Amino acid sequence: MIRHRALFALGFGLVLLVLTSCGHKLASVIDVKSEKLKPFFDRARDLEIQVRYTRINRDNSGRPHFTTYDYRVDDKFYFYPASTIKMPVAVMALQKVRQLAKDKNVGINKYTPLSFWASRPPQTAYKTDSLSGQPSTIALFVDEIFSISDNNASNRLFEFVGPEYLNEQLYQKGAFTTSHIIHRVGVGGFTPEDNQQLNEVQFLDTKENPLLSLAARKEKFIKKVTLSDQSKGKGYLDANDSLVRMPFDFSQKNFISINDLEGVLKRIVFPEVFEKSQRFDLEPDDYNTLYRAMGSLPRAYAYLARDTHYYDTYVKFL
Question: Between 7 and 56, where is the model more confident?
């Protein structure tokens, strides 16, 4: 059976990665032969472990400087990134809505209600947020991504942003060098072709009249880098829950290298260390939205606090 060897945490301003699979050697800052770690590092090749630790030091002016320690990091060795893709999706949604408002000269922002229409199966329509009962907004989806790693929130933002804008912008900013985000997550029934088909999206005024409509469209991002070892495991369950006794082909799945994940995170937390052309096109209020969402527990939101299923460390494996 395929087991996704990816641990992820989206919150508290961190992304901690111990992923499938050099800068400074990691062994110089942690004891890889300790009783707790040695069993894993002894099997590092079989477990396809990659680790990156980055130390942050500030000079007398407060400017951050980074020292990176790597263990078996390989930007072109495939692993499934799971929900870590939600962070760049959230960032690009905040950037795109601000850009649309400017380019179209229309009064929309991250708090403007929006609706999604199904143009073909297996797409679904969506208007009222199923978790909060409130009108869907980009800001609400960002909160749900970082508080409980909500799949629907991420997928709706993917449908709004689209894979072409999403990936091309991340490459233009230098945040992506080997990566690609090309499909919705955690939802069945979508083929690679289906994931190129995007819902119609409408921004609505207070009377639910359309302020801006984005037509249903097809977008295909052509992957820029060929990755190695994209077949994993010994068997997998197909769409009918039948066991197929052969490796699973991940060539049509998302991928973000550790280097690129860190590149996205650094541009969120330390935008000042990058040239303007390499920063995300966000305003201070957008960064504050991200910081607040990344630092909030589920109980910070009334609609999540009522459900004890969403405990403090829900989907935060720290």
Answer: 56
